[in-house]
């Protein structure tokens, strides 16, 4: 029987009103363990940045992919999250030429893959590979929001990362929506409807 090659996959950015949803896929190297892997939400930004470098240096393979705000509006956020996970796995295979024998994803829904895939609730706290994927997805998404902040400085993206905070909603009302806002999301939809009346 062939040895288990486990790939962990997680996504970041389902809740925000703006920007893409990101996912990452990671196959860790058992001979090069990484200390301190945990659910990305429980780590400081500095710690995530340090671990991102370690994961990229020590993992057997990794891939990161995204699904745009426009695609999210077209297919809905759940389908977009699944698509981001599929793209992340594909990016990993294309980059490293390594296939997994088993995929484990965080949450209770599984994307379709041509190999066995398990959904693990709170997997980002239980499975090191999923923790590593959650860290890569989160840091990639945060970097993309910093780029958006430079493009649209008046919205404060560096501070709220696109989430529906009071500041973000206030700036949305003040400046309107950008091309990066998810039009299918309640607060953005409401603003668009208000502008039409």
TrEMBL record:
GO molecular function: manganese ion binding; RNA binding; RNA-DNA hybrid ribonuclease activity
Reactions catalysed, as given in the entry: Endonucleolytic cleavage to 5'-phosphomonoester
A cellular-component GO term for this protein: cytoplasm
SUPFAM superfamilies in the cross-refs: Ribonuclease H-like (SSF53098)
Cofactor: binding comment: Manganese or magnesium. Binds 1 divalent metal ion per monomer in the absence of substrate. May bind a second metal ion after substrate binding.
Cofactor(s) the protein requires to work: Mg(2+); Mn(2+)
Alphabetical list of PROSITE patterns matching this protein: RNASE_H_2
Keywords: Cytoplasm, Endonuclease, Hydrolase, Manganese, Metal-binding, Nuclease
Its EC number(s): 3.1.26.4
Enzyme class per UniProt: hydrolase
Subcellular location: Cytoplasm
Binding site for a divalent metal cation: 10-11, 106
Gene3D superfamilies, per the entry: Ribonuclease H-like superfamily/Ribonuclease H
GO biological process: DNA replication, removal of RNA primer; mismatch repair
Annotated ranges, domain RNase H type-2: 4-197
Function: Endonuclease that specifically degrades the RNA of RNA-DNA hybrids.
Record-stated family: Belongs to the RNase HII family.
The protein's name: Ribonuclease HII
Organism expressing this protein natively: Methylophilus rhizosphaerae
């Amino acid at each position: 029987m062939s040895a288990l090659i486990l790939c962990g996959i997680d996504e970041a950015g389902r809740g925000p009103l703006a920007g893409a949803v990101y996912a990452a896929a990671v196959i860790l190297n058992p001979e090069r363990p990484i200390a301190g892997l945990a659910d990305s939400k429980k780590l400081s930004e500095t710690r995530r940045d340090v671990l991102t470098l370690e994961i990229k240096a020590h993992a057997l393979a990794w891939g990161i992919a995204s699904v745009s705000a426009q695609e999210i509006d077209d297919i809905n956020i759940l389908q977009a999250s699944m698509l981001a996970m599929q793209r992340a796995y594909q990016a990993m295979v294309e980059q490293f030429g390594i296939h997994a024998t088993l995929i484990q994803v965080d949450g209770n829904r599984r994307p379709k893959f041509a190999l066995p895939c398990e959904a693990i609730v709170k997997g980002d706290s239980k499975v090191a590979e999923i923790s590593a994927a959650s860290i890569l997805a989160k840091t990639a998404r945060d970097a993309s929001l910093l780029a958006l902040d430079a493009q649209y400085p008046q919205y404060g993206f560096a501070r709220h990362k696109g989430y529906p905070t009071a500041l973000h909603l206030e700036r949305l009302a003040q400046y309107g929506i950008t091309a990066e806002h998810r039009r299918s999301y309640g607060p953005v939809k409401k603003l668009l409807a208000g502008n039409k009346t």
